[in-house]
Amino acid sequence: MFWDVLNFRYDEYPFELFSVSHLAAILVSVGCMVGLYVGRHRIQGNMKRLFKWTLVVLLVLSEASFQVWYIINDHWDVAVNLPFQLCSLSLYLCIIMLLTRSYRIFEIGFFVSMSGAFIAIITPELFFGFPHFRYFQFFLAHLTIVVACLYMVWIEGFRLTFGSLIRAFFALNGFALFAYLVNKMVGANYMFLMHKPYNASPIDYLGEYPWYLISLEGVSFFLFIILYAPFIIVKKRRKEEKVNI
User: Fold this and answer.
1) Which of 58, 67, 198, 199 is a Cys-bridge partner for 144, taking CB atoms 3.0 to 4.6 Å apart?
2) Given a cut of 60, is residue 6 above it in pLDDT?
3) Residue 33 and residue 159: Cα distance in Å, rounded?
4) Rg (CA), the chain
5) Which of 76, 137, 116 is nearest to 197 (CA)?
């Protein structure tokens, strides 16, 4: 049974969008985010260090197990396994962000990760359903990416500016340009720059290739603004509180 869930046979463990197992993964993910917010004031001192290192370990294990899974099934391929998908990139950024507490990495990682990983939880490019290994690895990796970003805001106290949004947007386009060059060299589809995902996704509503790439620019910037909006609200409230004191 254990080895069965490590196979590479899609038909034995099909994934269905918004099935019971998918909805369960979404609910667990949202529950973890809410739980982190509710318990944010309790994560201090040794607890904070333990929580941070737990996130780092989960991210590293998620990526390592993903690569090993491809290797043991003799499916490892430069067109699939290099870290140029948006969520793979986010995972590496989050590891560096947690280890270094770099603000520049945070501001780029937050926008890139939250706009990619959270959407991936809702509409995943996933071909293996419950209880396959890939099902658990996929949702654990993406949830940990999101939680790592929220940890930096709610526990470490990092904040974003409009400049952060602009820098993150240009960084994302820089990553996309590099991924496009890699795609051309190895025949890959990193960041879905060559064609749409095979599974149903929001990209399906953005037009045909290559026009959906232009639409993605606008959607990405809009998502960045939505992610930045809570920081504007909090900043405005703090200013009002200071005035009223």
Assistant:
1) 58
2) yes
3) 18
4) 19
5) 116
